Amino acid sequence: MTTQKLKYFVSFALYIIVAVLVIMLQSTGLAPLNIGTASAVLVLPLTVYAGFYFGEYAGAVFGLFIGAAMDVFSSTFIYNTVALMVCGFVSGLLISRLFNRNFAAASVLNVSAAVLYFFVKWLVAYAFVDPSPMFVFTRFTLTSALYTGAIGVAMFFLLNLMLKWIPVGPTKK
Question: Is residue 107 domain-resident?
Fold first, then answer.
């Protein structure tokens, strides 16, 4: 195994450990990130950045397992698993084929993933069931999406410091 591949696997393992700690802290209520009615889902930016830093397949696998772990702690049935897997894959695909690896691309990917994640969750859970779906959309869904996007943009700098010594993208033969 080359040094570059070893750095890639060690950094991916470190990234998974950080994500599991974030899930445990947020699911148990030890680190609630609420401002009014908005609550941030920190695993969503972690999944977007898994695709951003490690590639589309690693982002999809990361999203699959982290989404399944989130579904254990939440009331949604398989939504987080599918949504986070798609977010990780699409993020890695866009970075490898369309965007550059920079702050602007990370911000656009993160905010758009947060808006789409919460919008689809609102469509599935509230849009056709709740008696006042627009109240839920403006009061909870939109504010949570914007709050998650803002925290994800700030999270870019922390992850960039943590992962600056790894090779960019997955190693190819």
Answer: yes
